[in-house]
Write a structure and sequence with these properties.
The chain has 108 residues and is mainly β. It has helices at 58-63, 88-96; strands at 3-9, 12-34, 40-55, 70-76, 106-107.
Length: 108
């Protein structure tokens, strides 16, 4: 799985850019809140940290996966709902497509 389409990087247009997710780390973070009466309430939040590489095209990726033009990284809250697709890789690609710079990319 990857994303493809036109991207602009440092003023240059990359016509057939190829974006490939390379790393995803899923974290569960526990945090506490203390009420005025001293009651402590614990909550859990899920986070997914990712990095993806952008290549000139799919052939450039196939020729040398270490020769990316640049790397994209970020964090999002993955879905754990029973009705959601729980595939963290798919959720990462779907998240990247919500970002302004990547919202025109399509699955390939």
């Amino acid at each position: 799985m990857a994303l493809t389409g036109e991207l602009t990087y440092k003023g240059l247009t990359i016509s057939n850019a190829h974006l490939k997710v390379m790393r995803i780390e899923h974290r569960a973070v526990d945090s506490s809140t203390t009420a005025e009466d001293g009651t402590i309430t614990w909550t859990k939040a899920n986070h997914a940290d990712y990095s993806a590489r952008v290549y000139k095209d799919a052939a450039a990726y196939a020729a040398n996966p270490d020769a990316a033009i640049y790397t994209v990284s970020g964090t999002f809250t993955p879905s754990v709902a029973n009705t959601a697709n729980l595939n963290i890789v798919k959720q990462t690609y779907e998240h990247i497509k919500t970002l302004a710079d990547y919202d025109e990319l399509t699955d390939c």
